[in-house]
Amino acid sequence: MYNKDLDIFKAVAETGSFSKAAQKCFITHTAVIKKMGNLETHFGATLFHRSTRGVTLTTEGQILYHHTLEIMDFASKAIAEIEAVQHKKHPILRIGCSFMYPIDPFILLWNRNLSVTANMQFRIIPFSEDESYKKLLNNKFDCIISPYNHFRATDNISILPLGSYHFCLAVPIQHPLHGLSQLSFKDLEGHRLRMMITGISPLNDNIRNHLVTHHPQINIVDIQDHYNMDTFNDCAESGDILLSLDCWQQIHPALLSIPLEESYEMPYGLIYSKESPPNVLSFLEQLKTE
């Protein structure tokens, strides 16, 4: 049977840290250390070089890491083949879900179209934002609810539009602006604002161009090419304001989502691969026509 501790081993190997692996796997730092110790006992080998700067793989650890990737690939293919057989007997739509990709809009869509969804079951598949969901589509899950301002034609993705998220500002509770009921870009002058780097989202680029032109006193701080939990943690700890979306207003207890006076919206929808299984494509196409 597949040993789930290999998932933790992979996380430690790739992050170089027991603490970061614990955050990624949603378990405690102590649990990671204990499980890695058990793995080393099982194999009778030291898998990590430990130092104050983190951990690196020993030769034995590198061998295990290489085979762990192969094992995970084989396990994923086996699950996919078994599920393919099950899909023919009992069609199941797998939808990806995480803190950053909530499925509330999908549940509303499902319940509004019971005549279509009656013969289809759906399964919620959790995943980490550290994994690119574009790589997981048609593999780990069939579809996901996501903003879609940043796709390219080469992504081979289809979209069922569902609505728009409103841009807002995630303000740390210790920030002097956190008590306001609404904020404008004018209010941000003299403050630090974190937002996505250029070249990823045309809509984000338009907002940045507006800020640079009309509000140069705002200190714009670049973040990575996608939002994850670290994005919100960093803002809560640094005191920086974050350009955010209203679907993320409950993400972090130390950040207050305040409506933005300027009206900017990000479209979102049901995202799925054009290479999805025929029964999935047929079902989603039926939803489009409802």
From TrEMBL:
InterPro entries, alphabetized: HTH-type_LysR_regulators, LysR_HTH_N, LysR_subst-bd, WH-like_DNA-bd_sf, WH_DNA-bd_sf
Membrane-spanning ranges: none
PROSITE patterns assigned to the protein according to its UniProt record, in alphabetical order: HTH_LYSR
Record domain HTH lysR-type: where: 1-58
CDD domains given in the database record: PBP2_LTTR_substrate
GO cellular component, one term: cytosol
Domain of life: Bacteria
Single annotated GO MF: DNA-binding transcription factor activity
Keywords recorded for this protein, A-Z: DNA-binding, Transcription, Transcription regulation
Recorded family membership: Belongs to the LysR transcriptional regulatory family.
Annotated protein name in UniProt: HTH-type transcriptional regulator CysL
Species annotation: Veillonella ratti
